[in-house]
Design goal:
globular, 8-stranded parallel beta sheet, TIM Barrel, 10 strands, about 280 residues, oxidoreductase, alpha/beta, NADP_OxRdtase_dom, NAD(P)_OxRdtase_dom_sf, 10 helices
Length: about 280
C-alpha cells in the first residue's frame, strides 16, 4: 500500500504504477481540463487516466508537454472505445490516440468495455502493441469474472489491470478476490461514487473520527484494499484534498464497516448488458 503519492504498485509484468492518479472523464472544456491536469501534476500526481471516448486525449498531451515534467515520469492510460474494437480497428484507434497524446508510447492501454464478442480480437491487437513495445502494459475495464476467464483461456498475455466501478455501495468483493488471486490489479473508476455517499452516516461518523472528509475516508479505504484510484476533479483544492490520504490509517473494524455498506448498487452500466457503440 502506498505511503505517499510517489509510491507505486508493481503490476504483474513488473511495471510500476502510481496507486493514486487523476481521472479526466467528462473534462471536455479544454482550458478547464488543461488547468486541472497541470494543477494535478504540480501537486505531485503522476498518473493520468483518459480514454478515446472522453475526447480529451489531445488536452492531456498538451498539458503533459506544457508541464515541463519528463514524459518518462508520467504514467498515461488510455482506452479503446467500443466502436473501434476488433483487431485492425484497434490498431488504428491506438495510433489516433497516440498522436493525440503526442507521445511515442503509452504506459497502459485498456479495453474500455467487454461487449459480446469482439474483445478477444481486440485483445490480440493489444498483445501485438505490447510485444512491439509501444505499450508498456495492457489490461481491461469492466470485465466480469467470466469475461476474464474467456479472455485468458485463449490469450498469450494476461491483463495486468481490471478497471472497474468500485466504491462502498459496490464493493465487488468476489471480482476483486478473483483478480487478486490471478495477480490482476484492480483500479477503481468512480471511486467516491460521484459524491453520492456524502450523507452516508457511517462515512460521516468516520470523517469526524479521523478529522477527514467523507471522500478522503472512501479513498483511504480503497488504498488499504490495495486498489488503484483515479478520482476526478477540475478544482485545485479538491485535487489536493484527494491526495491528502497518507497521514492516517483506518482500523480493521472501520474498514469492515465501510465494506458493509455494500448494496451491489451501480452508478454506471452493467457490463453484461452494456452494448453502446458496438
Amino acid at each position: 500500500m502506498a505511503a505517499n503519492l510517489q509510491d507505486t504498485l508493481t503490476l504483474d509484468n513488473g511495471l510500476a504504477i502510481p496507486q493514486v492518479g487523476l481521472g479526466v472523464y467528462k473534462m471536455t472544456d479544454e482550458i478547464e481540463a488543461n488547468f486541472a491536469i497541470q494543477s494535478a501534476l504540480r501537486t505531485g500526481y503522476r498518473l493520468i487516466d483518459t480514454a478515446a471516448i472522453y475526447e480529451n486525449e489531445q488536452t492531456v498531451g498538451d498539458a503533459v508537454k506544457e508541464s515541463g515534467i519528463s514524459r518518462e515520469e508520467i504514467f498515461i492510460t488510455s482506452k479503446v472505445w467500443n466502436s473501434d474494437q476488433g483487431f485492425d480497428q484497434t490498431l488504428k484507434a491506438f495510433e489516433v490516440s497516440l498522436n493525440k497524446l503526442q507521445t511515442n508510447y503509452m504506459d497502459l492501454y485498456l479495453i474500455h468495455w467487454p461487449g459480446k464478442d469482439k474483445y478477444k480480437e481486440t485483445w490480440r491487437a493489444l498483445e501485438r502493441l505490447y510485444n512491439e513495445g509501444v505499450v508498456k502494459a495492457i489490461g481491461v475495464c469492466n470485465f466480469q469474472i467470466h469475461h476474464l476467464e474467456e479472455l485468458m483461456a485463449g490469450s498469450n498475455e494476461k491483463p495486468v489491470i481490471n478497471q472497474i466501478e468500485n466504491h462502498p455501495y459496490l464493493t465487488q468483493e468476489e471480482l476483486r478476490t478473483y483478480c487478486r488471486d490471478k495477480n490482476i490489479a484492480v483500479e477503481a473508476w468512480s471511486p467516491i461514487a460521484r459524491n453520492q455517499l456524502a450523507a452516508e452516516p457511517t462515512l460521516n461518523h468516520l470523517a469526524k473520527k479521523y478529522n477527514k472528509s467523507v471522500s478522503q475516508i472512501i479513498l483511504r479505504w480503497h488504498l488499504q484494499n490495495g486498489t488503484i484510484i483515479i478520482p476526478k476533479s477540475v478544482h485545485p483544492d479538491r485535487i489536493k484534498e484527494n491526495i491528502d490520504l497518507f497521514d492516517f490509517q483506518l482500523s480493521v473494524e472501520d474498514m469492515k464497516n465501510i465494506s458493509a455498506l455494500n448494496k451491489g448498487e451501480r452508478l454506471g452500466p452493467d457490463p453484461d448488458i452494456f452494448d453502446i457503440g458496438f
